[in-house]
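Continuing from the previous page of notes. For each protein in this section, the sequence appears first, followed by its structure tokens. Read the first protein now.
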Amino acid sequence: MRTVEGIGGSMAALREYEHRYSRAALRREGGVLEIRLHDGQDGSLVWDEPAHRELPELFVDVASDGDNHVVILTGSGDDFCASVNPAGWENATSRTYDKIFTEGRRLLGNLLDIEVPVIGAINGPARLHAELIVLSDIVLAAEHTVLQDGFHFPYAVPGDGVHSVWTSLLGPNQGRYFLLTQQEIDAHEAQRRGVVHEVLPAQELLPRAWELAQHLDEQDPLVLKYSRLAITHALKRQVLQDLPYGLALEGLAGIRPR
């Protein structure tokens, strides 16, 4: 599998990867790349084995393309990601869990290795892997958005980065409560807590994301790149330090069917 190291040697071009991934639709205008996640048939993203496998590689391609100056991450339909297809993960042995462990580390690691500003546009309920989009530098949410970690506890240890992301964003005590009770946080409450920056009607969400992105795209690309590196450094260090340990604990406890 490709990694982010050595990006400077060969740069990806959008035409080489825009149709490579079955769970993402890509479009670019100017230096703004929109990533719209979906279920493979243009519906809301279902968290499944292809999404778990493909998204780390997608983020590498995005990071490797020097023509991407700003990234918008969003979803399709009324949900960002609210359901799961566990096929391929049940009854994981130590050997099969190695795939989950490897892809899980790369999922957040490669996302955080995108060296340009990322705008998250949460198009609806994000009950599964909401950490992917709330890690964005600017987070917008449709009014009907609900944030939850419905994928892990009590079915699995909340160890694939959510233990670090949510305790960072909500604070240690509130983050632990959120994970252990499967708490739901609506868009306005998420804004009050500083997780979301703007709450908008659904039809205004992407236009606002593009307005912000195009404004950023007018700035010097080097300023954009190094600003992203500066403002994400501490969070990236914490998440990547905690991630392997959490994934290991998740594997030790096993993943139970829902």
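Done with the first. The second protein uses the same format. Note its length before scrolling.
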Amino acid sequence: MTTVLPDAAPANWVDRHAPRALRPWLKLGRLDRPTGIWLLMLPGWQGIALADAMDGRAPDPWLLGAFFVGAALMRAAGCAYNDIVDRDIDAKVARTAMRPVASGRIGLKGAWAFILACSLASLAILLTFNLLAVVLGVASLGLVAFYPFMKRITWWPQAWLGLTFNWGALLGFAAASGGVPLPGLVAVALTRGWTIAAPDALFGSLHLAALLLYASGVFWTLGYDTIYAVQDLEDDALVGVKSSARRLGERAPAAVFAFYIVALALAGLSALTAELGWVFWPFFGLYAVSLLVQPGRLKLDDPKRALALFRMNTRAGLLLFLAVTVGYWHGAL
């Protein structure tokens, strides 16, 4: 009998098409639920688009593809790591009890091997970027490592997830901002030394606009993951897991609205700082609408609606990416 995780679509491709032996491994990496891949990838795409827009060009398709694959791999590794840490809690929560590690379908050694394989493949992609991007990519591991423990020590694990999931905005901007790819940088260092060019020409660079975009993403994630946490309000209370949804209670919809307002303000400031063209703003308006309709529809006693609202954020994030992408155009009205 096929077991479908409650927050996976009943017709997901894993349960419909994947070989039975592979299904636990694909579910370990949450490949039956692609929303998380999009939400991890889109900040990276936005960062790439921002760096390229500031240089007056559209995003590099190869770089977008690399971030898509890297996000899928790192999200899979992160989910497996989270399942290892949370296996005892997951077994007590209805929505997560059938996850492969919690249910015993995959052992700890197998899960760790899965993490290692995904991480090595992701590292191979990361090493094609410039040094600044590589350093940022490695630094993100600290955020990933501590995330599963946040729900035990703070009411705001969603804020930590925001710091983690949106790190790609900085990484993407750095990867697209120039700089010699790491293999070439090593060759330059060995043959010509470090003084042949300005540091940013070698390593890439960051910009205030990228930092504002990152901060915007943190509040965006704080909003949508609070919505996501509504699904587990009762179970989290029973097992003692903390979340922003539990902490806020009936104030959650109003708080999500406030988080999204801050996210929009910071994204707008990022665009102004980057001096994006006027075409950015109509798409940004659509992004704003896609966020601000969510809090009014959120009901604490309706977990299915919470999941549907959460999933809306893939389209919302894509709208912001499109806004930044066309923002390089400065044509006259």
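What the second structure shows: Residues 1-5 have pLDDT under 50 and may be disordered. Residues 28 and 80 are 6 Å apart (CA to CA). We return to this in next week's lecture.
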